[in-house]
Batch of 4 targets.
Target 1
Amino acid sequence: MAIDFRGQSAPASEEGMMHVFWLSGMSCDGCSVAMLGASNPSIEDLVLDRVPDLPLVVMHHPMIAEESGAELMAQYSAAGQNQLGAPYILVVEGSIPDDQALSSGAFASMGAGSSAARGRGRATDWIVALAPNAAATIAIGTCATWGGIPAAAGNITRSMSLMDFLGGGYRSSRGLPVVNVPGCAPQGDNFMETLANIMRGLTGNRDMPQFDELGRPAWLFDQTVHVHCPKAGYYEEGIFAEEPGDNECLVEIGCWGPVVQCNIVERGAVNHLGGCMVAGGACIGCTMPGFPDKYSPFYKAPPGSAISGGLTKVTGSAIRRMRLMSMKMANREPIWERAGDGTTAWGRAAGLDSPLERINGKFYKKLQYKGSVNQASRNKLQPQPQSMDILRQKGVDVEASTDVLQEHVITREEL
Amino acid sequence: MTTIAIDPVSRVAGPLALQAEVDASGNFSDATTSASIFRGYEVLLRERDVRDAIFISSRACGICGATHSITSALALEMMFGIRPPQFGITMRNLLTTLDNMIDHPLHLFTRAGLDYSEPVVRATNPELWTAAEATAAPGVDIHGLKTIGAIMTHMTRYTGDLYREALAMSRTACEAFVIIGGKYPHPQTIVPGGISSTVDASDLSLTLLRVVKFLDYSRRTAAIWDDLVDFMFEANAGYRSVGAAPANFLDLGLGDDPEAYDGTYERAASWGERRWATPGAVLNGRLQTTSVVDIDIGVEEFVDSSFYDDWTGQSQPLLTTDPLGNAVSARHPWNKQTLPKPANADLRGKHSWSTAPRWRNNAMETGAAARLWITAVANTMPHRGFAEPTGSGIRFGFPQSALPQGEIEWRVPEQWGALERNRARAYALAQSTLIAYENVLVGFDLARIGGPEAGIFTHYKIPSDHVIGVGYGGGPRGYVSHHVEVDSKVIRNYQIVSPSTFIAGSRAAGSPGPLEAAIMATPSLATAGHDRHIDLMRTIRSYDLCMSCSSH
């Protein structure tokens, strides 16, 4: 089979192109900021056609566009009327207001004063015009996916998600319901990777990716954020932060991570850095339906944590004690055990000589090597190297200058 | 006379619509600007637990969410009677300056910058492009680009090195932000009494390594904009009039002095003056005050052109005098009630979701440029490790990085307009960078010294009586204030004033808003492609508006 070089030669052909039309409902532009901040792939990768198995992307976005007003909106109109000569993906950011039901006015609009205007230029008018012919429709961010803050209690805009606005019967021209990439703001790579994978599916270069029952990219949102949380180990051992700034599990200061589907601690916020709990911020469920009201008030422990957290405090503290014992043994090189001296220039290795731990260690190793070769007893028989402590052997005096560092050593017990 | 309607104006955050009359020579009159979005944050925040305030109000703006969340925390601290430990204040300073550093490059090279890129200049002013190609760039030793033409070429959308570098540097600042802030643009780590981050030696080091990349980048950026702006003025003095505006500035400063900030309203004027950028009000180039209280109390919001019912006369004012005895207007945020009323746009009447704030009845310009100007002329900024105000400018000192140690200076210009606004924004990147750098160093020192001030959080008890608090913040676009009224731990009123509300706000008592006035002062200098109104666009984009934030 011949190698397909499609996309590697510039300029791209018409069928190697895909348009992306960005529409903002009631948004804060945070989703656009997240998209611009993404690197995997980046917007430059897409619009400069740098990735061979992806089409050349023509991005229509008011915050990026060279054109304004009628000139810009004419392209949106052409898309809705299928006059582009290439497929397009519709991306919607922000909650969808109920302004189709208003006799006058709008809560989010653009292009009202231009010749390409549809209705009052409401964002909702543009969605109605563009969604039916889109090859795929993606809701980015919690406002567009579920409703978000503009749809919270007390709102006067009666806003809703894109999915609820278009209705359960909606399918894109290629048969997809609304794809939902939630988060307030969403992790930028979550969106760009989903966009890229959908384009691969649409062009037939790959299978269409998997989505869950709420239209979320399944490979990104299938687990709770707690499962990958770097603080989940504290939870397991029953140790909890008492106040902001503490390093332990944040459940008792208001973290909903154990029940929230999100991947930000695994992926990081940007380029594998940060992520809410990684930095010390408690999860308030910003990727979830019902955010914010279902997670209010913030900074207060979720009721469920009293039971699950209480249980781990009992079991976790016992496990932690056993682990601390194992860790004492683990922090020793066999060469020190043979010498009977765990002293380094930094301090004395803890518990080397405790009789209880020696018995315990023996029992532990027996179990560990059962059915295998006992490397610990083999290691005991190894001869000691002769050039240990070489500076003393050669008579070099180094003791006068080293003590300053001793003050800064932290033992495991102190940690 | 013909009527032009531009809706939306692109490369502005959020939807901005413009209508104006234009005569045969391209002069604008009757300019009207509208914010075409409303979400109702002030309405939604009513009847909520006060603990929800920070993370909900932050989400009014996806560009300076960090600044809004910190501003909200300051308001809550005033109500709770607490202040964070010095290390906590320092880390918040770092986050708020990084918020600025994420955005400044995007403004300079992906939004406003495009209007000076090769394809645009060639299409609108071929003679300018010819001159640019032939003009050597004086700053070549700093930025490496030999001609003005080369600068313009590299400002081209997507393919230009400067365009792509701005995206990359913005991401670098974003990385630095999330190491301690956790997430961007809406950080999950801001709490009353400090932040909830666990900051260890590697967090500060990782942050520092990203901030120092901006030492070079901000110097190069300033040199590029110096060359570009000076060239434009030299080529055609008419460019000095593009976006011309009076020197009326308002700003609340940037970053708190960890030794001075105490969260009280009574001493706000004093701790405000010790900020890393000086708060102030300037009218026609003359400094009026540097007190955050005077600045705040002078603000009034008008809804003549806005889709809201007037609240005055409908409800009892909360305050007639503030806790210091200053008279408070019925139109001040303390007394404002948000009463939205959607309607079809009537350009002679109500047509915008933005209110129109005024300061002592003057239309004011906010932004990073205002912050620079006020800090320069006030000449009282106490943190002089890397920045030295002179009364007529600010000298910025850079430690050696990839470039050798050096100094740059921003000077108050004689005439204010779109190009000077962009030049000031470039120097504001240097200002933010050096404030961030200094705060990392202060952070290292506080961590080394240890003790209670090396903590990051202070405990609080939420009062159950009626309390009020105000937060004063500074985003990439400047002025942010949150006024909060709480009773029985529940929010009764929440009022946000943001920088673009000042600029994009339309007419009040018949007088135009700052953006409308600047448009009407702008000549059309295009010699080809006249219909694209490039100089009008340059004027609008020099303000770097955020319409979502402006209307909230």
Target 2
Amino acid sequence: MLDVRLYLLQRLSAMVMAPLVLGHIAMMIYAVQDGLSATEILSRTQGSWLWALFYGTFVLAVSVHAAIGLRVIVFETSGLRNRALTVFTWAVFAGLLYPGIQAVYAVTAS
Amino acid sequence: MIRPHRSHPLWYAFLLHRLSGLALAIFLPFHFYVLALALTEPDRFGELIEWVEYPMVKFAEFGLVFLLAVHFFGGLRLIALEFLPWSPLQKTYAAIAASAAFLIASTFFLSAI
């Protein structure tokens, strides 16, 4: 179940991610051409503020988006309601944001 | 039993969007876990990245990129439906719907007074 704020937040996070998803797909197609290696990935991302900002924004937006999306699925398929649903939403948000930021830091910190 | 509405193309559009979103949400923690290893266990990170050479992993990646792309386009469709201005024909239909409702309500009202 979504109130207006959650609905708008879901659409806003989607609009933020639209160009990021395109960039991510383009990057994957470009990077995978000669096979992937740890050195190749890290040489591109380490020490780059631009990639840190790109992936940091991506992680924040996807954490919001997935938390609200899973909230809808859980609401429609289980008996979870009210406070339990709110706790679930926040748990998904934090459960993606924290490791996501860790991952961005791991590949962009120099 | 398959109910009639579930054979409608829009049902598949909804289902594809929901399933791809769910699958991507389940995939993300693993994605983040592997990347975070770059800092904590660089050797393990290197090993896992080399998995991409296996054909099965390449095929799984194809699946993931498909899920991401299909969720992206499904999302664009939703946003276009909800936020783009209506076409002239859609406005006409909406005006017809409102006028017809007004006509019916007026008929009732005229009978009531």
Target 3
Amino acid sequence: MKKYETLLLFSPDLSSEERKEIVEQLTNVVKEYSGEVTAVDEWGMKELAYPVKKSTRGYYIRLEYGSPGTAVHEIERVIRISESVLKFISVKVEETFESTQEA
Amino acid sequence: MAFKFTPRKKFCRFCADKELPLDYKRPDILQDFVTERGKIIARRITGTCAKHQRRLTREIKKSRQMALMYYTAVHSTQVRKKTI
């Protein structure tokens, strides 16, 4: 288990429900791989440095989770299916991850 | 009297301040290390140490990927024109 984060850039004409749906879908994927989402960080609507698919603004959401590496593959596959995610990046944050739920 | 020009000693900002995050999510800091056209500034000019310069370029490139920083200034002016 390692700690990862994925930064997602959503299309600006997406409603908050649709965004939530995708985020939920991704948290389910993490859970399927016996991982755990530790943080969902919404940066909000931001001006982009350059136009992406002709839109000049975008909504950023950062997901932080601990999971095995295979989950990252699955998450990226799910992201690629939805066309409303303009850009995404997955980065390993820490080499080790210990679940906070177990006690 | 001969006046000799002695340039100010450069130092690595990331070594001097351990708290300063070197992260693709902080384009505000990374912006200091690129020109106004978006090119990464050489280590011999900024004074960043080799280790941090390597990480810096990686983080800048990640930041560009996520449209947090621009690749070239031409595109960024297009954005500005549209939003005005």
Target 4
Amino acid sequence: MKDETKTAIICIAPALVVIGTFTLLPIFYSFYLSLTDWDGFSPIKNFVGLSNYLKLISSSDFWKSVGVTLYYAVGVTIISVVAGLALASVINRSGRLMSFHRVIFFIPVVTSFVAAGVVFRSLFSPAGFLSDTFRSIGLSPPNWLADPIWAMPALIIVGVWNRLGFNTVISLAALQSIPRGYYDKAKIDGAGSWSRFRFITVPLMKPIILLLLVMSMVDAFLIFDLAFAMTGGDPLGATRVVGLYLYRNAFHYYKMGLASAIAVIVIAIILIMSLIQMKLSKFGREA
Amino acid sequence: MSTKGISRTTAAVLTIAIIVVAAIGYYYFTLPPPPPKGELKFWNYWDGTNREAINALVKEWNEKNPNIHVTSVTISWGELLPKLMAAAAGGEVPEVASGDLVWMPKLAKTGILVPLNDFIKDINYTDFYPEMRKIGSYGGKIYSLPVSANNLQLFYNKDIFEANGLDPNKPPTTWDELLTIAKACTDPDKGIWGMELYTGTGEGLTWQFQVYLWQAGGEFLSADLSKAAFNSPEGKRALQFWVDLIQKDKVSPLAPWGLFGQGKAAMVMDGTWMVGGFRAGGWAPLTFDWGTAAMPIPSGGGQATNMGGEQIFIFKTTDEKQRAAWEFVKWLTSKETQIHWDILTGFMPVLDSVARDAVYTTWAQTTEPRLGPFIENQKYAHARPMVTQYPEISDAFSEEIQKALYGTVSVEAALANAETRVNQILAAAG
């Protein structure tokens, strides 16, 4: 046992040093900065207590951006997890083409959001491919990115496009780890395909689904580059996600203290969301 | 007698000695100090063909001035200000840099720039356009010189004009004509619009709108820069014109920027740099025939445009390096170098004498006549208010104005809301 602990410590140490230096330290530092009025450059950092937090809590712009981000994150998470599962079960039956499909669906995952954002921006433009297609079949296209109602769905479409591959590949791996024997035995006992899905696939997939929900949600909540490249927060603030709000305060107005406070609140929100999701799904008990 | 003689000799020696010392002292204190020497780093964000242009000029300087060697360092627009500000916090400053004119209040406030008030006695400072001189002034001192300029004028699609029976050589000159032509060109079935406006939030909207505001005779901030001044009859007139183009006459789209370049808008107001971009061989060449014109003006209003460009400034280092840096700045902003620079880059002149120079004007007329409206109207270019809170003011203003463009609030309410927010930002410390 003692040797095991030692080995564990030795194995963890390098990663811990790296994470500590490049992740934990900056997090603590930004917490410290959130209590100051630092402008990002000046050597002077006046301690201002919680005034940055109070400013944010009373700012309707900030809460609006949190709401907008939640809209995006929930939209992307639900669609990409459900669609990922569905796609995985289809690919699971595609036999020899499986690895080909895996690669195809994974390509968007490794595509830069900025590049994708620029391409999708022109696809969604009034003079773009999507709008032309709508017109060619006699429909009047929505004014996607300039319409306060359609701008966010357009962002969610790109978010799902990006996320789907990851969720599919993970779901596929989980599906394949379920021993085939379970299904065969259930079949012999007379279970239909719905029952097999309901009583074998779902319970065994539950920890993976939960993992994907939490990961997708956290990932989507941190959206910045896509919104930056596609809409810049327009129109009427309909896509001004919290990442953009933070960026503007930090690198446009040089309010580094306030921006750090936003970052700390975002960390807290993500933590709370993850805890709620785990609680709701009674993480691990049925796994 | 002899004592008298000795004392006379002594007196003579003393007199000579005093004269010699005085002469040496005079020589020492009044002659210019020895010519400065040094290695200078020059940070700027000019890239692409502009980078080639500045490199060519720096090379020419280095050949002529073996004692002062300049190295031009390109840093992207987005990174340059943070880097300069970080340098201000105790990092390594370059000796010289040039940056976006809107950064100047922020940079001047840091106290890391050398005031140029003594240096400019060397040059004909008033040859720079007055609005550009305003930008370099902060707290009663001069911290930078203009080095390049651009402004906003009208671009129009001659093919769309012709397709709608309009004379492609008769661009609009008034707001009324602009509306008439825009109506004639708008074709919803083809997705073609009359006039493209910048309807996204941010400085893009604000600096475009300011042109209409100034044309109508309005001001953006009060003269002492302490409060908003756009909530005025002139401001209402300008905003009403935009709102009508979009909501009433439906000749301007609510759409992401760039329709003119895609051939989907007949007219647009854009910057000097797009002349270089849109032409054959540019970085965004157009597939249709196009022209430029001075921005149409409202009845009873006047010509006005917004000024962009770069300013050059010197950092506090050592006395010798500062003097060396000034020699370079003086050369770069001199008439001869500026003519060369403007021809290489297509930037607008910052010196009145360049704009009237025969070599320059001949070049412009023969090589790129579409620069004409920009050159002629540079003198009407206004500087944006030089306050440190400008980026935040600009965002807040654009957010409130956008609501009027979308028709969710009235023109009056949008201007009043923008006024409240801008005044709040100005009241907070910058």
